[in-house]
Amino acid sequence: MSEMTEPHPESHRDDREQQSYDVHATEAKWQPVWEELDPFRADDDSPREKRYALTMFPYPSGDLHMGHAEVTALHDVIARYWWQRGYEVLNPIGWDSFGLPAENAAIQRNEHPATYTYANIETQAASFKKYAVSFDWSRRLHTSDPEYYRWTQWLFLKLRERGLAYRKSSPVNWCPNDQTVLANEQVVDGFCERCGAEVTKRELTQWYFKVTDYAQRLLDDMEGLDWPERVLTLQRNWIGRSEGAHVDFDVATDGGGSRSVSVYTTRPDTLFGATFMVVAADAKLAEEIVSDEQRPTYEDYLAETRKASDIDRMATDRPKTGVFLGAYAVNPVNGESVPVWASDYVLADYGTGAIMAVPGQDQRDWDFAEEYDLPVIRTVQPPEGWEGEAYTGAGPAINSANESVSLDGLEIDDAKRAIIDYLEQQGTGRGAVNFRLRDWLLSRQRFWGCPIPVIHCPVDGEVDVPEDQLPVVLPELKGADLKPKGVSPLAAAEDWVNVECPKCGGPAKRDSDTMDTFVDSSWYFLRYCSPHDDTQAFDEDKVRLWMPVEQYVGGVEHAVLHLMYSRFFTKVLFDMGMVDFTEPFTALLNQGVVINQGKKMSKSLGNGVSLGEQLADFGVDAVRLTLVFAGPPEDNIDWADMSPAGSLRFLQRAWRLSGDVASAPGTSPEGGDVALRKVTHHTLHDAAELVESHRFNVMVARTMELVNATRKAIDSGCGPEDPAVREAAEAVAILLSLVAPYTAEEMWERMGHQPTVARAGWPTVDEALLVEDSVTAVVQVQGKLRARLEVSPDISDADLEAAALADESVQRALEGRQVRKVIVRAPKLVNVVVG
RNA sequence: GCGCCCGUAGCCCAAUUGGUAGAGGCACCAGGUUUAGGUCCUGGCCAGUGCGAGUUCGAGUCUCGCCGGGCGUACCA
Questions:
Q1: Which residue has the closest alpha carbon to B1 C1'?
Q2: Where would a tag sit more exposed on chain A, N or C end, judged by fewer CB atoms within 10 A?
Q3: Could you give the ipTM of this predicted complex?
Q4: In terms of DSSP bridges, do strands A187-188 and A443-444 run parallel, antiparallel, or are they unpaired?
Q5: Is the C-beta of residue A599 closer than 7 Å to nucleic acid chain B?
Q6: CA angle A245-A247-A249, nearest 5°?
Q7: Which helix (DSSP H) or strand (DSSP E) does residue A510 occupy?
Q8: Strand B proximal to A609 Cβ, under 7 A
Q9: A243, A336 in Cβ contact below 8 A?
Q10: A597 CB neighbour count, 10 Å cutoff
Q11: A477 close to A447: Cβ distance less than 8 angstroms
């Protein structure tokens, strides 16, 4: 060949180099272009249908890591897909920038928490930009900005106005390390969710949000949510609705008097078997009814209980302990006088803090009765030969009758109804619903959070900071001023804490606690709709435009905390008439976790994978592609199993197609190679469904298939001039624009187009090209594959059956056997059943 | 202990309402290209779906039991 002797200066000399592109140069090339074009700015006034795609906003701790890379890569597939499909997409970004780590860092470095916080935010923002996420940067917000937390404070006052924010004294979770109280949700197995210290109890007056008022609605409204079943279950368990009854017992006390004590039970049908009562040792009730004689014993026990940590209390096989209170309760159905005990196995803050103990039907009560030799009456007939202890299963009631009512013979549900009717008639009890959910404790004794906009006045009590004085801005404290001392550092900021009472003008003090950062994140999705509005928390019209969030993406670790609180806030705002929906997040996707070598990445294991290094080695696109292709989005990704090098190879392979396309831009694909066109249109059609059903990994696989088919068409098929090749390569670029924006843009440009491919639009799928000329039908005899037939896709059952039975190898298989039945599923399958 | 989810090639993973077990990738092997390595192109190897039963003409898919792994929960009366 002449080229061998005289190489063509352009096409062959640098052949090797020309077959790949410089990943980092490409990144540097497009970033400023996109910055300029700003293709993902969500326009409120766009006539396009609006969609809200939201990823849980990050906490600014250091730079982005693999976890951020994964969740944004997955989330971005959806957002970018929506843009391509013609929606106006709101995909905002911001930072959940209040919180303890910044405060701890500030103490260490003797600076203000804002320094650390905003430096990290800048780092992360730059990384996100390089990572090419389709965020609308114009809506960026930080919860620690006074412009934001002013409205957090405003919302707090609105909740207070409605009686949903209140103060009470109660034993609360206390983290001795962080020196602050914690919500129940932040205590995991008795340890501080954040720092791992063992949590203790303290009696403190704190602010609460009345989430319990919304318990039933939080439960009911889950019906319509397109959320992972796992998360819904977690929330249901957390809300913990149970049905039962309150039963009133008269308790005789020392002085000869008596008082009524109500207990909550889910098994009122077993009331005849209540042989003693147990009161939570740390409930006020116990202290009130204990006899003088038993008081010293009780007080010793109480002291011991208080000492025990939650961990000790939660040990499963721990023997039951308790003390007799010297009081007796009268069972309202049979007049029996039963002893009242105190124990730590009853919780003060659940139900009424007192229970009727039915050892025959409750294992915990049985254990206690065993320990203290208390009587047992069975009220449900256990099965024959039952030798167990408490019997909690189904069965007819026994030993459950008095002069006016009998439950005997009734199954549990009927017995419950009957006894509740009776108690209600007698006025000694009533049906009741109870929830495990507690009110949300929102006070925190720390500095770097949203100040609670309340002033405590010796004359007027708790006084709201007037709206026109919001925000209550944090004072300039730093370093040692922030050291935890058990009270908020704000309390020591004299200039800040001492104010005039807005009502009487007298000396008063600001509330020196700050809010749980989950308050900040309970409404940020609303703020994104009008992030710069300095006249209101959010513009109701803009919210109507965008909300609710159509797709929320984030980690499952927020299943009960953030998601429950956000749902609560939304319902409150609905009741206030400020929003017209009751659920903020229509659909939720929980991504898996990136692990390494089968284990969670951690410093101690030394198995951490640095996102920065991966990006440096393989580039943004290859890392994103790897994360998206790894498997179903909700599965964990073991980085050790992944091949970013392979991803990069694929991207280069795809990119190479764009250089081979030899037809002019805008060439009509009509008349191009039909086989390739079919692959292209099938791929586009299926890819849409795959993205919508979140099977992104399969979508990528299908894109690879299209790349392979196009390669083949160029090298050994219709050739690079065929317009079908252009159509296919452009489809590849558009598909890749969801996952690998740099490669896609580079391809787009090479094929003669202007940026940006991200907004090029999804090609129209030609239905005619989806129809196959023939399909393979399989013929089975007794379920075994005997023949394959090429048939028309619209062949009739009868024709297919005839063709199948006429087939030689089928005939052979049928030889000497009687055809009993033929199952035909045209056009794919025939199964011949022989006798 | 209780509840939920998952077990498909050496590895990561695909597989409409039950209907040909294999789409894609990694790793490996061979051939071609290349001065060589890598790249690139072509081809190939590899499981009968954790185990056992059941339903069915037909089961990776449905049912039951076991084994293995993961997640949640744990005195909430």
A1: A316
A2: N
A3: 0.94
A4: unpaired
A5: no
A6: 170
A7: strand A507-510
A8: no
A9: no
A10: 12
A11: yes
Count of all residues that appear for chain A in the document: 835
Strand B proximal to A351 Cβ, under 7 A:
yes
Question: How far apart are the C-alpha atoms of A288 and A510, rounded to whole Å?
Answer: 36
Q: Is beta strand A551-554 parallel, antiparallel or unpaired with respect to A599-600?
A: unpaired
10 Å Cβ neighbour count for A772?
A: 12
Strand B contact at CB of residue A361, distance < 7 A: no
Q: How far is the CA of A757 from the C1' of B28 (A)?
A: 38
Rounded to the nearest angstrom, the gap between the alpha carbon of residue A337 and the centroid of all alpha carbons in its chain is: 50
Per the structure block, which two tokens stand in for A704?
């690879």
- State the nearest residue by CA to the C1' of B13: A631
Q: Which residue has the tokens 């000869």?
A: A256
Residue whose pair of structure tokens reads 């035909």 in the numeric block? A824
Is the shortest CB-to-strand distance from A350 to strand B under 7 Å?
yes
CA to C1' distance (Å), from A774 to B56:
29
Q: Determine whether the distance from the CB of A169 to the nearest atom of strand B is below 7 Å.
A: no
Which residues does residue A431 pair with via DSSP β-bridges, in sequence order?
A: A245
| pLDDT tops 80 at residue A706 | yes
Q: Is the CB of A635 under 7 A from strand B?
A: yes
Closest CA to A344 of A392, A251, A279: A279
- Token code pair at residue A715: 């090298």
Q: Using 50, 70 and 90 to split pLDDT, how confident is the model at A9?
A: very low
Question: CB of residue A459 closer than 7 A to nucleic acid strand B?
Answer: no
- Please, how many CA atoms are within 13 Å of residue A154, restricted to the half-sphere of its CB? 19
Q: What are the two backbone dihedrals, phi and then psi, of residue A274, each rounded to the nearest 5 degrees?
A: -75, 110
